[in-house]
Amino acid sequence: MGRRQCVERSPDAADRRRVTTSRPSVTIPAVTSVVQALLGLAVVGAAGAVLVRVVRYLARADRARHVAQRTEDDRIEQQRERAALPGASPEHPLAVGSAAAVEPRAEALPCPACGEHCHTQAHEVQHHRGRRLRAASMRCTGCGHTHCVYFELPPPPVLN
Ligand SMILES: [Zn+2]
Predict the structure, then answer these.
(1) I need a surface site. Which of 27, 29, 113, 129 has the fewest CB within 10 A?
(2) How far away, in angstroms, is 75 Cα from ligand 1 center?
């Protein structure tokens, strides 16, 4: 009986074939599931990376929109401040004693955009809400910005 067991334990050719042929059928599902798990992780990782990029893009777009809005708000505020400055609008003209004083006074004011010297291109009489004004068209020698400076002249002397 001991001899027989010994014979049965030694693998014959059929056993070796079974072992060698059965090994791939056992390992392929394991490898497949590992590959599937890795692919699954890769897909989840790629989706996560895409999500992170989308969130970053949206945050960046939101920041850019805020910056643009702030820039536009600043520009409007600067326009309002400039318009409120003496001489910057017909509502707030600078007082001068005569038309001869318009050009030197206008050229003494710096460019509202860059602070450089401005040159008078022309000045003309304008009437605004019953007031007689002089509007001087100015052009900056530094940045080329053009704007008007408004002056109020004293009423003409009444001759009798
Ligand atoms: Zn300028």
Answers:
(1) 129
(2) 15
